Amino acid sequence: MSMLKQETEASEVVAKASLARQAAPRLGWLATEQKNEALLRMANALEAEYESIVAANAEDISRGRENGISESLLDRLSLSRERIAAMAEGLRQIVALPDPIGETLAEFERPNGLKIRQVRVPLGVVGIIYEARPNVTVDAAGLCLKTGNAVVLRGGSSAISSNKRIVEVLHEALRRTEVPQDALQLVQDPSRSSVDQMLKLNGLLDVLIPRGGASLIQNVVMNATVPVIETGAGICHTYIDDSADYEMALAIALNAKVQRPSVCNAMETLLVHEQFAERHLPSLAQAFTERNVELRGDDEARRLVPSMNKAEAADWDTEYNDYILNIRVVSHIDEALEHIRRHGTKHSECIVTENADHAERFLQEVDAAAVYHNASTRFTDGFEFGFGAEIGISTQKLHARGPMGLPALTSSKYRIVGNGQIRG
Amino acid sequence: MSMLKQETEASEVVAKASLARQAAPRLGWLATEQKNEALLRMANALEAEYESIVAANAEDISRGRENGISESLLDRLSLSRERIAAMAEGLRQIVALPDPIGETLAEFERPNGLKIRQVRVPLGVVGIIYEARPNVTVDAAGLCLKTGNAVVLRGGSSAISSNKRIVEVLHEALRRTEVPQDALQLVQDPSRSSVDQMLKLNGLLDVLIPRGGASLIQNVVMNATVPVIETGAGICHTYIDDSADYEMALAIALNAKVQRPSVCNAMETLLVHEQFAERHLPSLAQAFTERNVELRGDDEARRLVPSMNKAEAADWDTEYNDYILNIRVVSHIDEALEHIRRHGTKHSECIVTENADHAERFLQEVDAAAVYHNASTRFTDGFEFGFGAEIGISTQKLHARGPMGLPALTSSKYRIVGNGQIRG
Asked: Given its phi and psi angles, is residue A357 left (phi above 0), alpha (psi -120 to 50 degrees) or beta?
C-alpha cells in the first residue's frame, strides 16, 4: 500500500515535469505580446475569481489553526481580496517589463567568415520549491512565463488548497491564450518525497530555485543534482568606522535592524570602532533598546553598556530575523573585515565612514553580493535596484549574484551562420 | 590503520583547500601586471626546468606501461621538451588576454541618489578535477590565476609524478612574485576519496569544473554539493535538408566526423532528408567508408546503402568519439528536430540547407549551446570563437553556455555608495 502510494506520488512529479518539458519549446518561441496577453488574462482572472480563492484559502487557514501554526505564519498564509488584487497588480507590472528573450548579447564575425551571434534564450523548465506564502505561486508563474520558461511549482503543504485554486484559475485564463497550460504545473503531493524527487530531475528540470527559510534552502543545495540558484540566508553586518558621522551611523544602523527585521538583508551584527564606541555606544544602544531590540555584546561593548546581554559564540553565526542584535567593538577596520570574512554569508555588508580609503578598502575587500558605503543594507532588493521584479537574492557566485531580475531566468545560445566553413 | 590513512587523506584535501581559500582574497586584489608577471615567470620556469619534468613524466609513463594503459592514453600522458614549451607558450597567450577582473558590468544611479556599480570579481577558489593530461595542470593554473582565482587541482593518478613536479616548478616561480604560492594547490592523494571530499567542500570551494570523460563528469554532476560548471558530453548531429548543396553538405559532414573524431564537438549522427538521401546517400556513404568510418544506419539508410551496419537503439544515444557514424533518413525537418530533441546533449547541432525558413527554424528551435547553419560543428571551441583561451565547453544553461573564455571564471558584486540613505 505504501509502495503503491509512493509510486503514484513519483508519477505525479515526473508526469508534471514531463508535461512542462514538452510545453517549454513552444513557450520559448512566443512573441512578447503573446506572453503579455497571457499575463494580463491571468491577472484579470485572479481578480474575477477572488471569492473562490479566498474560500480555498479559508480551508488552509482553518487547517493551519488546527495544526497550531503561529500567528505570523497564518498572516503570511492568509489571502484577502486586497492581497489577491496585489498579486494581479504584480503580474501587470511584469507585463510592463522589457522581455529579455531574443536579446543579442554579443555579435561578431570571425576571419573565416563565420557570423556568430549570442542570443538570450529561456532556461527551459524552472522548478521552484517554496513555503507558505501563496503569492509566490502567482509571482513565480508570472516571472517564468514572461521569460519563456515552463515552471514546476512545489509550494508548502500549508497553502495547498490556495495554491490549487490559484493554479486552476490561471490555467483557465491560459486556455484562451497562446501560452500552453502545461507550461504551468503545480505539484500537489504534500509529502517530502515530492521535494526529494524534484531535486533529482536532471533532464526534466533545467534549474531549481528554493525560496524560503534556511533549512529549506540547505536541503535543496545539499541534495539537488539539478543545478540550483541559491537564494538566501543573510547574516549582514554594519561596521561603524571611527570617522563615521554619528547621526548617519545611527540612522543607517537602526534602519538596517528595525525597518523590517524578518528579511534577509536586515542587519544581525553591528561592529563598532572602539573610538566611536567610547563616544557613542551608550546612546546608540539606547536607541535600539527603545525600539525593543535585545542587544548582545562582546566584553568591550558590555563594559560601555553594562545592561547589554552577553553574546555567545554561536550568536555571531545566527540569522535572527528578529529584534535581536549582536554588537562587537573592534580596534581597527582589519578586525571588522576579518569578522565579516568569518561570520558573513556573502549577502550584504555596510561600512559607515567619512574616510575614503577605508570605504574603498571595504568595498574592494569584502566578498559579498552587495557592499555598501554609507547606506542601509536593506536596499539589497530587485525593486530598490530598479529591476522591476525580483526572483530572489542570489548568495552564490555562479550565474547570478545579488538581486535577480528577469535576466537571471535566462540562458544564452550561439547562433552560427556560415557558407560551408569547415575546420582545418 | 585504514582509518588513520583516511584521516590523513581527508586532511590533505581540506588543508590545501583552506590554504587556497586564505590566499584567494590577496590574489583577487592584485593588479593585472602583477598577475601577468607571475604567469611569465611560470612560463620561463617550465622551460628552464623541462628536464626534471620530463624525468618525472618518465615515471608516470613507465608506471602506465606496467598497468597496461592504452597507447593513445600513453600519448596523452607523455611530455617532451616541445610539449612543455607549448604549455609555456599557452601561459604567455593568457598573459596577452585582457583581464576581466574589475570591469564595470553595469552602473546606474537610483532616484534616492544611491550609486550602484556592478563589477567583475573572481569566483574565489576554483576546484578542477581532471584526468591524464598534465598540460591541464598548467592551463587551469594559468586561467585561474589570471582571473584572480585560487585553484585546487586534482589530476588523474596516472599523471601524479608529472603534476607534482610541474606544481613544484610553478611554486618556485611564484616565490618571487606577488601571487601567493598557496593560491595554487595540487591534491596528491590518488584515491577516489580525495575526489569525493572535493565534491562536498562547500565554503572552501566556490565552484567545481570537471574536465574529462563522461563518467568523470557524471560523477561530479550527480554527487557534488559545491556548484558545478558541467562541461562535456557531445552527441552532435548534422542534418542535411532536401535543399542542401551536395558539395557543401559532404564537406561539412566529413569535417564534423573525421577531422578529429575524439572530441566533444565531433558529429555522432547524420540525419539526411529522404529526397537528398535518395540522390546522394550512396556517394556520401562511400566518402565516409573511404575514410575508415564505420556506418550504422536505420532501415531506410540501409535500403539505399545495403553494406551499412544496422544502428541499434542505444547507438543513437552513444558518444562514440571514434570512427563510427549513425545515419538516419528523415522525411521532414520536423523529424530531424524531434530526433535532436530526443537524442542530443545540447552541445552543437548543424543544419545544411539552402532554405532560409528551414535554417531559421533550426537555429531558433534547437536547444543547444551552439547551433550552426552551413558550417561544421567542430567550430565550437574557445579559440575558434576568438576568446583566446578555453576553460571548457559548458553544456549546462546556468552561468555559462558553450565555449567558456576568461569571463566564465568570474562572478560580480554590487558596490553601492550612498550618503546616508535608509529605506522608508
From this structure: alpha
Pick the CATH number of A236-379 from 3.40.190.10, 3.40.50.280, 3.40.50.970, 3.40.309.10: 3.40.309.10
DSSP B264: T
**Given strand A294-297, what is the order of strands in its sheet?**
A309-310, A294-297, A324-330, A267-273, A236-240, A348-352, A370-375, B410-421, B115-122, B104-109
The C-alpha cell of B341 is what? 530533441
CB B329 within 8 A of CB B281: yes
Task: Tell me which CATH homologous superfamily contains domain B2-231+402-417.
Answer: Aldehyde Dehydrogenase; Chain A, domain 1 (3.40.605.10)
Which of A25, A245, A370 lies closest to B416 in CB terms?
A: A370
Report the share of chain A in percent with pLDDT over 70: 98
pLDDT surpassing 60 at residue B365: yes
Q: Contact B182/B22 with Cβ under 8 angstroms? A: yes
Q: Does B378 touch chain A (CB under 8 A)?
A: yes
Percentage of the residues of chain B whose pLDDT score is greater than 70: 98
**pLDDT score for B207:** 95
pTM: 0.90
- Give B359's contacts in chain A (Cβ within 8 Å): 417
DSSP string, A369-388: SEEEEEE-GGG-STTTTT-S
pLDDT value for A259 = 95
**Cα B152 to Cα B13: distance, rounded to the nearest angstrom:** 9
- Quickly name the fold that domain A2-231+401-417 has: Aldehyde Dehydrogenase; Chain A, domain 1 (3.40.605)
Q: Is the Cβ–Cβ distance between B174 and B180 less than 8 Å?
A: yes
Per-residue exposure over B56-76, b if at least 16 CB sit within 10 Å of its own CB, e if not: bbeebbebbeeeebeeebeeb
Cβ of B106 under 8 Å from any chain A Cβ? no
Q: Do B414 and A367 touch (CB under 8 A)?
A: no
Query: B273, B320, B319, B318: which is closest to B300 by C-alpha?
Result: B273
Residue A196: name the closest of A127, A132, A243, A276 by CA.
A127
Q: A15 and chain B: CB distance < 8 Å anywhere?
A: no
The A residues from 344 to 363 touching B (CB cutoff 8 Å) are 359, 363
Taking an 8 Å cut-off on Cβ atoms, the answer to whether B420 and A248 are in contact is yes
Name which of A169, A123, A165 is nearest A147 in CA terms: A123
| Chain A CB contacts of B100 below 8 Å | none
Taking only residues 214 to 243 of chain B, the set having a beta carbon closer than 8 angstroms to any beta carbon of chain A reads: 221-223, 225, 227-230
Q: Which residues of A touch B228 (CB under 8 A)?
A: 227
Contacts of B376 in chain A (CB under 8 A): 421-423
Q: Give the domain ranges of chain A.
A: 2-231+401-417, 236-379
| For testing contact with chain A, the best of B398, B399, B417 (most A CBs within 10 A) | B398
- Under the banding of pLDDT at 50, 70 and 90, the label for residue A37 is very high
Q: Tell me how close the Cα of B59 comes to any Cα of chain A, in angstroms.
A: 35
Of B252, B151, B178, B190, the closest CA to residue B30 belongs to B178
Burial of residue B333, with CB atoms counted within 10 A of its CB: 0-12 exposed, 13-18 middle, 19 or more buried = buried
Residues 6+ apart with CB under 8 A from A8: none
Average pLDDT for B192-214 = 92
| Chain B residue whose CA is closest to A256 | B422
Q: How high is the pLDDT of residue B390? A: 86
CB–CB contacts below 8 A, A to B: 202
State phi, psi for B261 to the nearest 5 degrees. -65, -20
How far is it, in rounded angstroms, from Cα B375 to Cα A92? Answer: 43
Short-list B248, B266, B380, CA closest to B318: B266
Q: Do B227 and A397 touch (CB under 8 A)?
A: yes
Q: What is the pLDDT of residue B10?
A: 52
